[in-house]
Amino acid sequence: MMMEQTLERRDYIQHSLDKVELTCYYSAMSKTEILDELPNLTKQERDEIRRKLTEIDGESWFADNEVLTREEKALLDARLAAYLEDPDVGSSWEEVESRIRARLTR
């Protein structure tokens, strides 16, 4: 009887230690730790994270309820006026997209 209790106690202790070890191994990261780790990820890993965030949030990162500041409105008005004055100045979407993709693949 004493031997069985000792074995049960050892099993319980070992089981508890295993749980502690797993808890330590799978400890959660803080938001700060996650953000600090992002630059260390590969492009493929960052793309995976983007896809997951889009899956979770959908397109809600386009905040429809945010109001533009006076400075933002002035900047948009100035750019629209410049475009209306000379629509041929600037870059086509294809050129802009190409530059963006080139920067992202570095």
Mean pLDDT: 78
Helix content: 55-70%
Q: What is the string of SSEs from the N terminus onward?
A: HHHHH
Overall body shape = elongated
How much of the residues is beta strand, in percent? Answer: under 5%
The major beta sheet can be summarized as: none
> Helix count?
5
Residue runs with pLDDT of under 50 for 5 or more positions: none
Cα end-to-end separation: 68 Å
Computed CA radius of gyration, to the nearest angstrom: 28 Å
Beta strands, count: 0
Q: How many structural domains can be distinguished in the coordinates?
A: 2
Structural category is mainly alpha
Task: Describe, in plain words, how this protein is organized in 3D.
The chain is elongated. It folds into two domains: 66 residues, no CATH class; 39 residues. The longest helix has 24 residues. It is mainly α and 106 residues long. Helices cover 70% and strands 0% of the residues. The protein has five helices and no strands.
Question: Notable features of this structure?
Answer:
mainly alpha, 106 residues, 5 helices
Brief overview:
This protein is an all-alpha fold. The protein is built from five helices and no strands.
Task: Please outline the helices and strands.
Blueprint: H1 2-25, H2 31-37, H3 43-57, H4 70-85, H5 93-104
